[in-house]
Amino acid sequence: MKTNWKNQQQKNQKKQNNSNKQVRLEQEQGKRKKELDQSNVSQSSKSKKKTGCPYAKKCGGCQYQGLTYEEQLMKKQKWVNSLMKKHCTVHPIFGMENPYFYRNKVHAVLDRDRKNQVISGVYQEGTHRVVPIDRCLIEDQKADAIIATIKELIKSFKMKVYDEDTEYGFMRHILIKRGFATGEVMVVLVTASPVFPSKNNFVKALREKHPEITTVIQNINGRGTSMVLGDKEHVLYGKGYIEDVLCGCTFRISSKSFYQINPVQTEHLYEKAMELAGLSGKEKVIDAYCGIGTIGLIASKKAKEVIGVELNKDAVKDAIFNCKRNEIKNARFYCEDASKFMVNMAEKGQKADVVFMDPPRSGSTEVFIDSLAMMAPKKVVYISCYPETLERDVCYFKKKGYKVKGCYPFDLFPWTGHVECVVLLTKTRK
Ligand code: SAH
Predict the structure, then answer these.
(1) How far is the CA of 360 from the centre of ligand 1 (A)?
(2) Of 81, 155, 198, 244, which is the most buried if we count CB atoms within 10 A?
């Protein structure tokens, strides 16, 4: 699965040379087509065929149903261009060779239908009504098969499914995470109460059907909330986490930690981020909003020192574990709000050479950027999952003496309206 960025670029070059063979797009999309021909989209995924997802209308998860893959990429490119082109060059979006079954994390909510049969699926958008889904075109297929087995087991073990209206019942959600590189599989069974009748037999029966499952966790969520996971957990089988490999580092992922849901594209994204940082081994690097430490630990191999900061305590625990797991000696991780952390560092007169930042959809804060500017890094590599807040933050960076050098969109979420970008900012004045 590991692909080298340079190989990919060479492949892209070949595809560019063959671009005359590629599918002709509509006239009004001519300009976009040029950009797309330069991207890495294969002939197969450029096919005019649209997905035949039977749940498209009700599920709401894939906003770009009904569009071909190239139309989706063009829409995303257009969106990023409209926001970022006034600041810098926007490069062609990096699409997937095979834009299906890419999600390594699958969540299913449980319910019963009118015939009292156990169903699993997603909440209909804006409601708490469950849309039953048995097979999803973007989710890992193994995960969907495990969910189907769990539904059968609920029936044979005569278990009650939780009813949100009456707040009665036991089994609420199933969460599955899979390490695509390692094959490890985590199953989280979210229950309304702690007492799990026949839990050992349940796990045994599940593992008999799916020996690929490496850990099973019971998470207890008795609250009437839309949050899937509660605070308390019991490991029912295995080590309580899974591992995956990205860019040559091994990462522990626990049930509550954030981990990118499309690891194939994430490797390309991170490789680009490293290339833009251009580390030489002498730099002091900050990895802000670091999650389980992925970016910082990959960077640590080419930096003098890495400091990571993250708000989620489980993710920080994973980051510290991952540091040891990869025998990395030059990285430290802190659990704190990233803005507060930066203020603190700047007040102490600390400096940094390169800052990676990967905030959630809401973006970063002016306080964060003010303090970052005081620490005067020569380069900032900003990874964003929401172009609108990226653009807002980039405007503020410009006021603080940073130049926007280039924007690289990546399609991490085919069939949905989401797009990931990595942007390089460099310091212009002292
Ligand atoms: N860089 C990581 C995680 C990116 S997702 C990766 O690539 O995997 C964004 C992360 O920001 C999440 O882990 C989330 O918990 C964290 N986060 C959200 N708000 C934060 C804040 N105010 N301060 C620090 N971290 C925050």
Answers:
(1) 6
(2) 244
